[in-house]
Write a structure and sequence with these properties.
Length: about 475
């Protein structure tokens, strides 16, 4: 086993940031006492940042002259407590592996990000949302406590509010999460009844989303931004509920199953998606023609089954079309993609759609995916949340795409929306300051906790944190 600090080239998942840094791996908590890691801790000039599966679109886990601390090998499931309805896991456990285990015990998590190899530590650092944020909220609502290591404060069992709130959605800037205890819920069924519902006028989307989101378990919309005229933005709402068939859970003898289980490593397929492999060295395969064909095929498949409930495995709802999604991300090629995601007031959707439509009418840029969800709750610090309509669009990373992104920055501020800073590797600080009212308060509290600013990344430096 090679425990040394090694030089490493990093790339953000969206392909927008590439740089050299250093990497060191943790294999268990005892590694914190290793000589090479202790040397990093004692060097006050050394900047650190935790790193999970490296699937963040932006450069949240690396930068020049920064040592990334990989937690991917901290992958033990420590304890499942049926009495407390919690599971305790190390931070490198992936949501896919955790769900596979939980389902076998009759449990599940209602808030799951869109990719199975994202780690629990990453879910906390980004405060991710799941398949129905309107009903289930963000990951923060599941976290009971966590164990954090900070080079100046040591190992902390975090339960008190200030550090808890600073770390949830805190970009990894308070230290390295070692383990976490999170709430689990009884699994109603292993299958989901899914319905595809057409959306002929995108401006009616908020009302439809609110109506469906309140009562379903999974929901997302898809829209075709390659259409012209009144058909621009037409699409489908796909929503689902757990099937009525019951699921018999596997009960432990004393209602407290103690492991620990270290998840076995599965051999990656040639198309396994990471920041390093995304796109390989291919050119971008998306243009107006290929995107139009892709959208037409998807629309046809949805129209064939729309209105009729289709029973689908739970895994397909949590991680839909994983193999196709891998191919989708690879098709953007080496230079990558851009995903622009915002939360806006629902009444501003018509103005947003009209301005995007106006820009695309005179510029040659394929929008490969446009999708929406309804959000509820309050926004805190730098977390991507708060009540409103969450809307996301994908397009290739190219000169035209970057010009469009600058246009979207101005539009975001104009309509009072809030961008997801984890989805955009070049989002300027001025846009975050204009759209996140507690940006200054987050920075103040972070500096109070870590006055030496030992934890930094390209993302934090770009935002002036």
């Amino acid at each position: 086993m090679n425990n040394a600090v090694v030089d490493r080239k990093f790339v953000s998942f969206d392909g927008g940031v590439r740089c050299s840094g250093r990497l060191v791996e943790l294999h268990d908590r005892a590694d914190l006492a290793r000589t090479d890691i202790q040397a990093l801790h004692e060097d006050l000039e050394c900047k650190l940042i935790p790193r999970g599966s490296s699937l963040s679109f932006c450069a949240a886990s690396f930068d020049e002259r920064v040592t990334s601390i990989s937690t991917i090998n901290l992958d033990k499931i420590i304890e499942l407590s049926e009495t407390d309805s919690t599971v305790t896991v190390e931070s490198g456990v992936t949501v896919g592996n955790l769900l596979e285990f939980l389902v076998s015990q009759g449990y599940y998590l209602p808030v799951i990000p869109g990719y199975p190899s994202i780690t629990i530590g990453g879910c906390i650092a980004a405060d991710v949302h799941g398949k129905n944020q309107f009903k289930d909220g963000n990951f923060r609502g599941l976290v009971r406590s966590f164990v954090l290591h900070n080079v100046d404060h040591g190992v902390i069992d975090v339960r008190e509010e200030d550090l808890f709130e600073l770390t949830l959605g805190g970009l990894g800037l308070t230290g390295t999460i070692l383990s976490a205890t999170i709430s689990v819920f009884k699994l109603p069924s292993q299958t989901v009844e899914v319905v595809a519902e057409p959306v002929d006028d995108i401006c009616n989307l908020p009302d439809i989303l609110i109506k469906r989101s309140a009562s379903c378990d999974f929901i997302v919309s898809w829209h075709d931004f390659q259409q012209v005229g009144s058909r621009f933005g037409q699409g489908f709402l796909e929503w689902g509920k757990f099937s009525s068939s019951s699921f018999d859970s596997v009960s432990s003898v004393d209602n407290r199953t103690v492991f620990p289980i270290k998840e076995s490593r599965k051999a990656p397929s040639p198309l396994t998606l990471t920041a390093d492999t995304r796109g390989f060295n291919l050119p971008n395969l998306f243009c107006l023609a290929t995107t139009g064909l892709m959208n037409s095929l998807y629309e046809h498949s949805q129209r064939v089954s729309h209105g009729q409930p289709v029973e689908s495995p739970l895994s397909r709802c949590l991680f839909p079309n994983k193999s196709l999604r891998d191919l989708y991300f690879h098709a953007f090629g080496r230079h990558g993609l851009i995903e622009h995601q915002i939360v806006m007031a629902p009444e501003n959707l018509p103005r947003y759609v009209e301005k995007v439509k106006w820009w695309l009418r005179s510029n040659d840029l394929p929008i490969t995916i446009a999708s929406a969800k309804m959000f509820s709750g309050e926004q805190k610090f730098l977390r991507f949340g708060g009540a409103g309509l969450c809307f996301a669009i994908d397009f290739p990373r190219c000169a035209q795409g970057l010009r469009f992104l600058n246009f979207l920055d101005e539009l975001t501020v104009e309509i009072g929306a809030r961008p997801n800073l984890f989805k955009d590797s070049r989002l300027p600080r001025k846009i975050i300051e204009a759209t996140y009212p507690e940006f200054g308060e987050f920075k103040k509290r972070l500096n109070e906790f870590d006055p030496n600013r030992r934890y930094q990344s390209e993302l934090s430096r770009r935002l002036g944190l």
